DNA sequence: ATCCGTGCAAATGATTTGCAAGTCG
DNA sequence: CGACTTGCAAATCATTTGCACGGAT
């Protein structure tokens, strides 16, 4: 944890930005809630718990900065807000998401899975792929199990 | 063209909505600019050319309605606006996009390309895929050619 | 002193909503 | 009549910006 913070500090310095207390608090919240896909407001509220003096605008500015430096990715699931997601350690590419249309949960997929598809796109459309965004919408494992409870599966469910 | 409009009219009626003149004008604009990824404002301006009395709110309401009925897809490329894209005739799935990070152009890919990936996701994550959204960010063919002009490629480009 | 970074409040821009009036079966 | 639609203006919500102050070099 601490070493990831150190690394981010170096990345900031490399572009001559400082890791101010506000920025550090913001990054810490991101690190501590890595799998949560927080919105700017979410981050703001969490940062505020430990550093009540911080302003919302500062959080926005910090998230924008981190996005520029590709330390986080700004994502959008179609609700009205942007969400911010830390990049994995050495990930060249963005990771994928599984959004459940029933319970709204979001799972992450770290595996690339798109190597083959990218080759096809580069060949067939002559498009030089730099990054991608892939989201699947569907029903998560938990919700599927919920359904089975309601309507218990028999050997021969049809009719 | 006309038959697609007819089809949409039926889809509306099936959910007991009418194809009012305003809605028809909006749908026509979408049909006539099918590959353009128009924002609500874009649609509004285009509709206004032929039907100046229409209100922006009506366009928003129509687009929302069409989205609900899955006649169009609401997409978001990360600029501040939502864009609206007609679904292909019988497409169960959403088509993909190639967004050029240099000139901003957007190409569409109708091919699925994700069959294999979806099988993996369903197996490995036990996630029942219903739809997907895939966008590649990179450099389009035209912009690549622009680069070659500036810096003509020799047999041995290095050094 | 100079810059960078911050907080606050005001501004912006996209989208939504309330409501009174219109349409059409 | 009565449900569905509309246009307009006002409201809302996320995000951005202007600006004067504060802290570090």
How would you describe this structure to a colleague?
- 2 copies of one chain form a homodimer.
- Chain A has 159 residues and is α+β, with helices and mostly antiparallel strands.
- In chain A, 43% of the residues lie in helices and 21% in strands.
- Chain A has helices at residues 2-14, 21-32, 40-50, 56-68, 115-124, 141-150, and strands at 38-39, 72-76, 82-86, 96-100, 106-109, 128-139.
- In chain A, strands 1-3-2 form a 3-stranded antiparallel beta sheet. In chain A, strands 5-4-6 form a 3-stranded mixed beta sheet.
- In chain A, strand 4 (96-100) and strand 5 (106-109) form a beta hairpin.
- In chain A, helix 3 crosses helix 4 (56-68).
- Chain A is globular.
- Chain A starts with a helix and ends in a 9-residue tail after the last helix.
- In chain A, 23% of the residues are buried.
- The mean pLDDT of chain A is 90.
- At the A-B interface, helix 5 and strand 6 of A face helix 5 and strand 6 of B.
- Chain B binds a DNA duplex (25 and 25 nucleotides) through residues 16-18, 20, 22-23, 39-41, 53-58, 60-61, 64, 80-82.
State the strand order across the main sheet of chain A: 1-3-2
* Discrete helix count of chain A: 6
User: What is the typical, i.e. mean, pLDDT of chain A?
Assistant: 90
Distance between the termini of chain A: 55 Å
Roughly how many Å is the radius of gyration of chain A? 20 Å
Q: Name the chain pair whose interface involves the most residues.
A: A-B, 33 and 33 residues
Contiguous runs where pLDDT drops below 50 for at least 5 residues of chain A:
none
Number of strands of chain A: 6
Largest sheet of chain A: 3 strands, antiparallel
Secondary-structure element sequence of chain A?
A: HHEHHEEEEHEH
Principal-axes shape call of chain A: globular
Task: Report the structural category of chain A.
Answer: alpha+beta
Strand content of chain A: 15-25%
